[in-house]
Amino acid sequence: CSTPGGSDLAWDIATGLGLLLIQFCTTTWFVMRSPTIVMEQEPQLFWLPGYSSVFPAQWLLLSRKNRNIKGEEFDTRRKTKQNTHVYICTTMYHESEREMEQLLTSLRGVAESQVGERTFESHVFFDGGCRQGQPSQWALQLLSVMERTLQ
């Protein structure tokens, strides 16, 4: 008689580590075979414009351009992505000027990277942004940062 579960546990761990090693090696092989493209615009880096927040690493690996995939495969998808709408909603309370500048710089980058027929909207909601019908100091601070940042 053998001990219950002793060898099964070792077999399960060895199988799991083997599968993890195979996944790591195949992903590394895929990335290393692709040409290195640094500091390019979004249309030169990716086949499909956009971003998927479900599995970001897999999305970036599978949608980036490389020499293994032909462009004709993505023509039909690109046509359906042309009328995309991008909505960004942000909530603010008592953020510093630096945080507001970072947000506005990011929003400007998203707006400028729009390709095709995509539309972009951004909304900033303030908690306590008005008191008795007058904007608070934080809302006024955002307006002054907007003038400096978005010029």
What is the strand and helix layout of this fold?
Blueprint: H1 6-33, H2 42-45, H3 56-63, H4 75-81, E1 85-92, H5 97-112, E2 119-126, E3 130-131, E4 134-135, H6 137-149
Parallel strand pairs: 1-2
Antiparallel strand pairs: 3-4
Helix pairs in contact: 5-6
Short description:
By secondary structure, the protein is of the alpha+beta class.
Account of the protein in words:
The radius of gyration is 24 Å and the shape is elongated. It is built from 6 helices and 4 strands, in the order ααααβαβββα. Helix 5 (97-112) links the parallel strand 1 and strand 2 (119-126). The relative contact order is 0.10. It has helices at residues 6-33, 42-45, 56-63, 75-81, 97-112, 137-149, and strands at 85-92, 119-126, 130-131, 134-135. A two-stranded parallel sheet has the order 1-2. A two-stranded antiparallel sheet has the order 3-4. The longest helix has 28 residues, at 6-33. With 151 residues, it is α+β, with helices and mostly antiparallel strands.
